[in-house]
Design a protein that fits this description.
- This protein is α/β, with parallel strands linked by helices and 271 residues long.
- The chain has three domains: 5-116 and 187-206, Maf protein, CATH 3.90.950; 121-181; 219-265, no CATH class.
- 25% of the residues lie in helices and 29% in strands.
- It contains five helices and 13 strands.
- The chain has helices at residues 16-25, 51-69, 127-136, 161-172, 189-206, and strands at residues 5-10, 28-33, 73-83, 91-101, 106-114, 121-124, 144-146, 177-181, 219-225, 228-229, 239-245, 252-256, 260-261.
- A five-stranded mixed β-sheet has the order 2-1-3-4-5. Strands 6-8-7 form a three-stranded antiparallel β-sheet, with helices on one face. The chain has a three-stranded antiparallel β-sheet with strand order 9-11-12, with no helix packed on it.
- A hairpin with a 6-residue loop joins strand 11 and strand 12 (252-256).
- The radius of gyration is 23 Å and the shape is flat.
- The N and C termini lie far apart (56 Å).
- One zinc ion (ZN) is lined by residues 229, 231-232, 234, 263, 266, 268-269.
Length: 271
């Protein structure tokens, strides 16, 4: 039986349910620190920030979880939402998780993205339009926020149709109302699934141990170019392998992908 570690999570949005099972498979029992309001770290924004910004935010939460709990291991989660990277039309979600080891001062992260999000907003002037929007995004299982902080009504608390209609009708007395999907994890089962997918990727990495120092998280670091052109045998820019690297001792090894590629990728045969 492998050793089981405790790992600390700062949360006020119920993310533990998405993280517990995948991390248990990697030998970690998630416990939450509930006396800390993660909203004070800043809530996610509507624009898609750079991946680096998300990574920094998740790292900050993981380290803070260790500091506040005294635990060796902490986990931090951060998400962002916006339009898809190609046309900006379809909703697009991104999730980052950071595992942090306070003793070794090393981290391992996982990142997933995709169109599986209900991220949307709409400005309405009639109750019927509001009801149609709410139904389309999966309310009441998925939360809807009525109004925004600059408007007279700003309500994140609607849990059923009656309270939603009452809130919209009140807001409509002041003019048009902005409606948006609630992206807080506990009010967004679609987002919760994406966090779980990210946790599975993280867990898959955590169970791989470095061949040299046995630290967890021995995994893909960067692609290595140089697959050979099938026609002229010269190296191309296409990846021939991925570099695996240990975050603790920096030991590396290569995982071969393919030795040769079609001549269309060759700068010599197909300039
Ligand atoms: Zn060639
Ligand atoms: Zn190592």
């Amino acid at each position: 039986m492998a050793e089981v570690h405790s790992i600390a999570l700062l949360t006020c949005h119920g993310k533990k349910s998405a993280l517990s099972d995948p991390l248990a498979q990697a030998g970690y029992t998630v416990f939450t620190i509930n006396h800390f309001d993660t909203d004070t770290l800043g809530t996610f924004t509507v624009e898609i920030p750079r991946e680096g910004t998300m990574l920094e935010a998740a790292r900050r939460k993981a380290k803070l979880a260790c500091e506040l709990s005294g635990a060796r291991f902490g986990i931090g989660s951060e998400g962002s939402f916006g339009g898809d990277p190609w046309f900006g039309i379809t909703g697009w979600g991104r999730e980052v998780l950071v595992w942090y080891d306070a003793v070794e001062d090393v981290e391992i992260s996982a990142f997933v993205q995709g169109s599986e999000t209900n991220f949307a907003s709409k400005c309405v002037t009639q109750l019927n339009d509001a009801i149609n929007f709410a139904e389309a995004i999966g309310f009441p299982q998925h939360g809807v926020i009525v109004g925004d902080p600059a408007q007279a009504v700003y309500d994140k608390s609607c849990l059923d149709r009656d309270s939603f209609e009452a809130s919209v009708e009140l807001a409509l007395e002041y003019g048009e109302v902005n409606l948006s999907t609630d992206m807080r994890a506990h009010r967004n089962p679609t987002r919760m699934k994406m966090i779980a997918r990210c946790a599975q990727d993280l867990a898959a990495r955590l169970v791989l141990h470095c061949p040299q120092c046995a630290s967890p998280g021995f995994g893909e670091h960067a692609p290595l170019s140089g697959a050979l052109c099938i026609a002229c045998r010269r190296p191309t820019k296409q990846p021939r392998a991925v570099l695996l690297k240990c975050v603790r001792c920096c030991f590396t090894s290569e995982k071969p992908l393919r030795s040769e590629v079609a001549a269309q990728y060759c700068d010599y045969c197909n300039p």
